[in-house]
Amino acid sequence: MFNKMRDEPNRAHALKVIKRLYEEIRHKIIEPLTVRRTRTDLIDNEEYLKDIQSQGMTFPKMTAPQPIYYKLDPELNELFEDTMKQLRDKHLGLKYYRYQAIKFLMEQFKKRYDRADSISDRLTNIMRTQLVKRLDSSFFAFIESLKRFRVANQAMVTMFAQGRVHIAPNLHVSEYIANGQEEELIKLMDDLKETDLSIQTFVPDDFGHNFLPGLKHDQEIIDTLCERWLAWQARNEDPKLVEFVSQLKGAMLHPAKNTTNKLVVFSEYKDTTDYLKRELDKAGIPRVLTVDSRNVAEKAEEVRSNFDARASAKEWKDDVDVLITTEVLAEGVNLHRSHTILNYDVPWNSTRLMQRIGRVNRIGTTAKEIHVYNFYPTEQTENQIELYKKALLKLQGFHTALGEDSQIYSSEEEFGNFGLFDKVKEDRDERVGLLMDLRAFRKAHPDWFKQIERYPDRARVGRMERIAAKSSVAFLKNPRRFAFYHVTADNAVQELTFLECAKLLSAEPSEVGVPLPAHHHPQLLSAIAHYTETQRADRDAVNHAERYGPNERKALSLLSAIHDLRLLNKEEEDLIARGKQALVDGKFQHLQRDLNKLRRNQDKEPVSPALLSSAALRILQKYPLDANRNGNGQVKAAATYYEEPTIIISETFA
After folding, report:
1. In whole numbers, what is the pLDDT of the chain averaged over residues?
2. Cα angle 150, 152, 157; round to 5
3. pLDDT bucket at 244, cuts 50 / 70 / 90
4. N or C: at which end does the chain have fewer Cβ atoms within 10 angstroms?
């Protein structure tokens, strides 16, 4: 449904459907699993508010996101539209043949690669979209990408002329060819072929007759685009950059609005961040710092001392006003000495927008307001890849499913708070009220509270209750799952939420228990049977996956998938079984590493099941796996793990 709404031309209707869809997800999936309080929930609750105020904490207000637009003059508009046609027109424009080599292999070679056509088509779409996104990010980033594409495509044409075509997706083949380092490339490929099955060398006759003409067709278009954009770049100013500099000299750093005189600028692309730094230097805007994956460790202390409000007085510095960064600082760092953010471009993953803002919208900031500026995509870009619409729909899904205090990107977003994820406000208040009652009880009756804490498992009691007569309530738990049950008089088993169970268990201190009714044990057995049946579907996962670390699980999953292909003889199946047992026992430190390297390469560039199976078997044969047999010569079975639930507390109503 979400994908269908991405193609819906009526944006208002799409938002309405997305909101309804994520309301259902919230009620049916998220509420039973997650507890979440937004800042508004805390402020709205008197007890929490008092606690917050007693600690001297304040929450800043998120102002509405502020859009920034830039205009294209007639010359640039024409160049922009012509470029879009060449990037997007599948018939007359770029074919992206450079990224479809395995699709055009002759059939006997093509079958080595699993889903060669679909993977090539997917890679083509990714490259097409990335070029359009870079064009939206900055004209400089786009020109740099176009130049790299030009070199890569020409390198493939050159390989055809030399009679050897290398396919190695995980290596920078184009750079080696462009620099005349083919022999070094071949040596490196030979060293990596064992675990990277996508590395192959072909001759021109191994490809279909239309592949080389397609490469040359692309080269003509790329050459023309490069020359046109380089000529434009030499003569003209970048309108987006001009608007950015104007904003910097205006509201973004004006003391009336930006009380800290600090700004954080995010872009997806290192080309763009480097470009902005150089251009700000030229514009005479000082005290600018750029951070990306290359220098993030080196600049970490400088970022902290200038932008982290939690830095100690000894660390505190004020050398930087503008921090320009890629996504490398989008999470895990405090930048809340600034309270202003500019999104220079829109990330494809809209979660990043929320994470970016979270760097400055933090407890501990001294600012009263948070300001977010967003460069919106040009109309041409939006018409082509709908960046704005996709970001809006995804953010609306987050808001509806999880709750949010404010808009992130657009004034079209509808936001709200769902407290502890109960269905209506009254339920939310009831749950918070229950928590407050428990806290008050512990404070007023600490001895009683300790006595309750020491109650053994399987505590049980009979009660007189008219509404729930002849039924039972139970809280069951094992190390992997807890559940609340109500078994009715006709032995129907219903799983309850925590709040529903609490309502049935609540009692006045004056209430006196009664002897356990005869239906207590049969009803408890029904609840246990339901619990066991529910967990049985997951038993294999409990026995297998959850016992091991993520690397072992991935390696085991690969071997299981190969076994399930049914391409192995009995000896090979036995080898797979011994390999799995070696992983379970943790005998060979590098076994899971080698298998996971193979798995990662398969994820990047899938090969046929037969080739994948052969590669995995070769890896296993390097290890002395015969030690994994028992005295009868059979592979030792892994121990199973499953626990029946413990009854924590139960009540039966007479």
Report:
1. 81
2. 95
3. very high
4. N
